[in-house]
Specification:
212 residues, alpha+beta, four-stranded antiparallel beta sheet, 7 helices, 7 strands, 15% strand
Length: 212
């Protein structure tokens, strides 16, 4: 069973890892808010539903890792004082991942989560999630778009890199899987949690740290 509460009792359990101890930018730290991404993900009640265009599955994955590993650097998502940027796949993106790997598209979000847990161990899920996070930086769309124009490589919290580029006016994230279509930023899901030190951008594919 998935553990369903991260933002409360686990909020103070941040670990001394590169993600959890990423330095703050002193000049900007006083200006930005401290609402965490964990609180944002939990705002809709922490449940799996029938809306494939939100972020229930990534929340369930984070909760699963946090429930199994009390020292996971993903707990930095609960500390709004720490700067970070997350590229967050929609529920539909996870269903696409499962379909690519198994040949069958799950019929529900719960079935998608079950398929992921049956396919990957907690350490692998943690690595994949960390591959979606840039530690120590608040990268709003005003910073991501210029970076994409330059074809910038971002270093992710997992240690891997993701290249951002512009393709037909859209921000594309190039991961390590050469065969699957690269993720694209979703315009209506840019700058989630804007005004805070932790921001997120919704994407339409799960980033893959290896060639699957």
């Amino acid at each position: 069973m998935l553990k369903r509460h991260l933002a409360g009792p686990l909020a103070g359990a941040l670990v001394a890892t590169a993600l959890a101890t990423a330095p703050l930018a002193p000049a900007q730290a006083q200006q930005a808010g401290t609402d965490s991404l964990a609180a944002l993900l939990a705002a809709d009640g922490q449940k799996l539903d029938k809306n494939w265009n939100d972020f229930d599955i990534v929340e369930a994955a984070v909760l699963t890792v946090a429930g199994a590993k009390s020292d996971t650097p993903l707990l930095a998502l609960t500390d709004g004082k720490r700067r970070l940027t997350a590229f967050v796949p929609t529920d539909k993106a996870f269903r696409t991942l499962v379909e690519d790997l198994t040949g069958t598209a799950p019929k529900s979000e719960k079935a998608t989560v079950d398929a992921i847990l049956a396919t990957y161990d907690v350490d692998t899920i943690e690595t994949v999630l960390l591959y979606h996070v840039v530690a120590g930086k608040t990268l709003t769309s005003k910073k991501v778009v210029p970076a994409a124009k330059k074809g910038t490589k971002l270093t992710m919290a997992s240690g891997g890199t993701v290249k951002v580029k512009l393709k037909k006016g859209k921000v594309v994230l190039v991961d390590k899987d050469k065969d699957a279509r690269d993720a694209r930023a979703i315009p209506k899901f840019l700058d989630l949690n804007k005004g805070n030190r932790q921001v997120a951008h919704g994407i339409d594919r799960v980033l893959r740290p290896i060639d699957l």
